[in-house]
């Protein structure tokens, strides 16, 4: 508990979120699904206004980039109009609505005694505080997951996306007002001061989920005693095994790096088996240079592609020796650190020592190598012959994701609905006199527990 003024804005926000969560637990799950459809409809109706706000945010952000105060990677994440980002956001809401309800599922059931039944049943976590940078579509993504999983949420976007995020939040609030869910079920805040205050309110907030830069996540982790779920970096690696197929290698490496360089599941390091230096590696390097990727190479990989200097027009500007920090840097741009390794074991050791335990890939034709890699790499995602860009809740079939967790407790990898529920134990006695624990034990006259399994998918009352 804290000594904060009970009337402070942060306390009022957190308390109302907790009250909304508690009230929502007695509302039928079908109403949460209806709320998601209402939100999608309201967002679609508000598209023009939201896009206009996004244009203003982009213009202001571009000025910050030009002044050297914002990275171009952050600018790219801000653009809601790019490609199919808007349509994917709306489709994600629909997909989440159509997913099975993650709450109320029984994962363990046992008859402890005649007419004494125990059930472990999934339930929402409570109130989520989600803090993110840029990417305004995250407001809708997280709201959808929170509502479907039965959690209330307080959302804080980056200042660079304030105009867009505010209109998306307004659309969500308008939609919620047409349902039985409390309007304060999903709330948005705007200032860092509010975040700082909320991080101390562990009596109201149950989980903090930061999405953004390493600095953001570390600051949050060091500023609260509320549990934090998230990842601090996206240092993903692709390893070209000695048995790699050239076409697969080119396709997987190029896609992992270039599909969306600013994403946390973009590859930042390429490990090349030494037997591929004069065979597959030059072809991969040529493809990367053709895609305007800057290559930061160690001595062997740099020497192996020197012949490309005569055929690749950008060789002189896009190939250079790797600095010592290359293999621990999240570039978030068309830059790839390349290193030679003598074996699969060395590749695994490098990944476990230098990666962020997000997602790592092996390109190989060897079943034994694939088997060893996916078991030896200590990451949330271990892929075989597939781009690291597949590490995404939408692509996994989760509808969308609240973030990617590189932790080892509760949720790991893309966090969808299943990562936003916990469980409670429900014990019911139908005995004529009820049940009391003192009647059970190992002594004379004591009852013994039956511990007989019960087949159940839901609590039967």
Brief digest:
It is built from 16 helices and 17 strands. It is 38% helix and 19% strand.
Give a description of the structure.
The chain is an alpha/beta fold and 461 residues long. The protein is 38% helix and 19% strand. The chain contains 16 helices and 17 strands. Helix 10 runs parallel beside helix 11.
For this entry, give a set of tags:
Aldehyde Dehydrogenase, Chain A, domain 2; 2 domains; alpha/beta; Aldehyde Dehydrogenase, Chain A, domain 1; 16 helices; 38% helix; 461 residues
Topology:
Elements: H1 9-24, H2 29-45, H3 47-66, H4 72-78, H5 85-98, E1 106-113, E2 116-124, E3 127-132, H6 137-149, E4 152-156, H7 162-176, E5 186-189, H8 192-198, E6 207-211, H9 214-221, E7 236-240, H10 246-258, E8 267-273, H11 280-290, E9 294-297, H12 299-304, H13 315-318, E10 319-321, E11 335-341, H14 344-354, E12 359-363, H15 367-376, E13 381-384, H16 393-396, E14 403-405, E15 413-415, E16 421-429, E17 452-453
Parallel strand pairs: 3-4, 3-6, 4-5, 7-8, 7-12, 8-11, 9-10, 9-11, 12-13
Antiparallel strand pairs: 1-2, 1-17, 2-16, 14-15
Helix pairs in contact: 1-8, 2-5, 2-7, 3-7, 5-6, 6-7, 10-11
Instruction: Please state the CA-atom Rg, rounded to the nearest Å.
Output: 25 Å
CATH superfamily of the largest domain: Aldehyde Dehydrogenase, Chain A, domain 1
Arithmetic mean pLDDT: 93
Structural class: alpha/beta
The CATH topology of the largest domain is: Aldehyde Dehydrogenase, Chain A, domain 1
Strand composition percent: 15-25%
The low-confidence parts are none
How many structurally independent domains? 2
> Biggest β-sheet, characterized?
7 strands, parallel
Number of helices: 16
Spatial arrangement of strands, main beta sheet: 10-9-11-8-7-12-13
User: What is the CATH level 1 assignment of the largest domain?
Assistant: Alpha Beta
Helix content: 25-40%
Annotation, overall tally of beta strands: 17
Reported CATH architecture of the largest domain: 3-Layer(aba) Sandwich
* Span of the ends, CA to CA: 35 Å
- What is the approximate shape? globular
